[in-house]
Every structure is written in C-alpha cells, then in structure tokens.
Design a protein that fits this description.
Elements: H1 7-29, H2 32-71, H3 85-140, H4 147-179, E1 187-190, H5 191-199, H6 203-208, E2 212-216, E3 221-224, H7 226-242, E4 249-256, E5 260-266, H8 298-307, E6 311-317, E7 322-329
Parallel strand pairs: 2-4
Antiparallel strand pairs: 1-3, 4-5, 5-7, 6-7
Length: about 325
Amino acid sequence: MDLLRSAEVRRDLPAFGLVTIALPLCLVFFSPPAALGALLGLMVLDALHIWSLYRRQARIRELAAQLSSILHGQTTLALEEYTEGELALLRAELQKLLSSLNASRQALLEEKLALSDSLADISHQLRTPLTSIHLVAAMLGEPDLNPARKRELLAELGRLLSRTDWLVDALLKLSKLDAGTVQFHPCAVRLKDLLTQASEPLAVAMELRGLQLTLHAGQQTLLCDPAWTAEALGNLLKNAMEHSPEGGAICLAAEQTPLYTQITISDQGEGFAEVDLPRLFERFYRGQNAAPDSFGIGLNLARRIITAQNGTIKAANGHPGAVFTIRFYHSVL
C-alpha cells in the first residue's frame, strides 16, 4: 500500500490498466501467438517499472530515516550505497549540508566554551579591584581615622575606581570587537597629529614620573580610524610608561614606505622575558615583568584594533628596553 502513495505510481496506473484491456484487442487484430507475446512484453516492462519504483521508494524511506536520526543527534550520514542516479546527486548535496552543519555546530561549541572562559576571566579580573575597594571603604569607616590617613585612603580609592572604570571600558571594547559590531571609520590623518593624540592622555602621568617623551613623525598621512588607532597606541604607550624607570625616555616614531606605515614605541625599561614574547598579546596574560595592577588586556586590545585595520604588531627587546613595531599596510589598487 505504501507504493500506491507515490504520485509517480498513481500517475502510471492508467498505463497499467491499458495492459489488461490490450489482450482482447490483440486477439481481434493479431494472431494469438503475436498477441500473447506483445502482452507478455508489456507485462514484463510494467513489472520492471513497478520494481524500480519500489526500490526507489525503499531507498528514499531509508534516507528519510537517516535524516531523522540526524535531527536527534547523529552526526554522520551513511550514504555510500547511493552511488548512481538522482539519489547520488541528492547524497552529495546532503553530505555538503551535513558537513556545513557539523562545522557550524563545532564553531558554536567553541564559541560557547570561549565565552565561558572569558566570563570566568572577567569575573576574576573584576574581583581583585572590587575586593580592594571594599577594604579601603571599610578602613574609611573607622571612627579614629586621622586626616592624613584618610587622605591616603581616599587617594587609593580614587586610583582603584579609575582602574576599575578603565577595565570595564576595555572589556566592553573587546566585547564589541569580538562580536564584530565595531564600525571603523578610516580617514587620512597626519602621523604627527595621530601620535600627539595618542600621547596626550598620558602627558601628566609621564611628567610626574619624570619621563621624557620624544615624537618623530613627518607630515605624511595614514588612512585609519583616528580614535581607535589612538586608543591602541595609547595602550602601548601606557605599557612603556609603566615599565620605564623614573627619569627615563620613551620614543614614539613613525615613518612611511611605499608598502606600509611603521610606528615604533621604545622605552628604557627591563624589556620582556623571552618566555613571555610568544604569549604577550594573549588576553589576560600577565608576563613575568607585568605591573602589579596589570589586567593583561591592554596589549590584546591594541593588537585587535591594529589587525582589524590591515596592520601587524610585533614586540621585541631593544638595547635596552622594549620595542613595539606596528605596521599598517597600504591598500593595493
């Protein structure tokens, strides 16, 4: 009865009925042996046709069962027996679809695990300054606190709040970059103006540490998003400042070639430990010479911004200190 549900079989039923009425017509117009031979030939052809339809329907039912099992978690499709005809074409397309679905599922699983790890890291990073803030707030509540100590604690509380605010802002920017929602707006900006914009927020902190910042840049222009690029350069400058000795010097220089625009940031600090260089730009990674209050995301954020604008960044040890080399490659027309 399943075979009768096929539209193809129902379409051919009139042809099958013609065979049953062909015998009396053949007996009228042809000799009995010829009529019997023609009738047997038609019956054999009809039987082969019905058998072919039955086999095709059986294979389609098997295929439907396998597809149903995929919907319930199976990740492989056994289609080796479909080697010819229309079912072979269907097999090839289904195999492509299944491979794409498996790849998408694996990617979603990896993203889920990465998100879980990222949330765990973020909660850990936030817990440290928040714990310190709670301790400082508790100390400020002591009744016999003298004015000098109170001023020290208020200054420390302000520093912790500023660090926490920077951390939350940096994490939000990283989340936007991860989600692909950041819209870069490139425009031609003078290199000298770009380096000045990146260094201005750190001018007071550098002056308090007695650091000398020198800028070397010409009037050449760079096609980039000025705000985001200044953010990346500022994070690198901040790293150089935190690892520079008091009274030291930081050099920020830019030059252009026909292929790329190169920006270098060098300091006179202790440099990088060799074991840290391969992992320096990983998120939440803190090297051996990291500052005590470092979160390990500033360098990662800088790399993400630079690479998103057709750039590269490399860290190396200088003589002395550390050197960051950034290259923005020009578009090929």
